[in-house]
Amino acid sequence: MGHTFLLQPGRWKIQGSWLERNKMPISVKGMTLVAWNRDNWFTMATKLVFPGSDRTEIAMQYKGRMDDGERQYSFLLHHNLLGQIEGEGWIGLSSIVQRYWVLGDKQRRSGFETLHRLDNASYSLTSGIMSGHFLSSTMEASLEKLTTKS
Fold it and tell me: What letter would DSSP give residue 18?
């Protein structure tokens, strides 16, 4: 499979652009931490900040499960701005695709993420959040794996 993001524990630096409807793109930076336990459960914590902007930072806490040898998984997510979320992910040969939906949301918000593997230490991320049938925001970013110092 060759994927290092999500399938292996690690720390990842995020850097890119955030775009909202009818607004100019703004810079986004962040960090994602991935951890696994022995029972095939993973946790992922992501924090995004918007330097030079008054936009509120985003914090996300994922918990999911993937059985050995499987290419699909499900997850629960707590998003500090959207609330409780359920989602699913698929592991492709060169990409990881996630889709999620906000629980009990009157705006019917949902989203997607595509992480395309560039090499063992970097991915290209494209994501979007939809409200009903309309795209409300997107993000384009690079993920770089941080190495631990011995």
Answer: E
In terms of pTM, does the model score above 0.90? Answer: yes
Q: 82-91 as b/e, with b when 16 or more CB fall inside 10 Å? A: beebebebeb
**Per-residue pLDDT tens digits for 59-87:** 999 999 998 888 999 999 999 999 999 99
6-26 tens-digit pLDDT? 999 999 999 999 999 999 999
N residues, the chain: 150
Task: Map tokens 């994501």 to a residue.
Answer: 127
Q: Which residue has the tokens 């993000």?
A: 139
Torsion of CA 92, 72, 48, 119, to 10 degrees: -30
**For residues 135 and 19, is the Cβ–Cβ distance under 8 A?**
no
Task: Catalogue the E-assigned strands of 9-150.
Answer: 10-20, 26-36, 41-49, 58-65, 72-79, 83-91, 95-102, 109-119, 122-131, 134-146
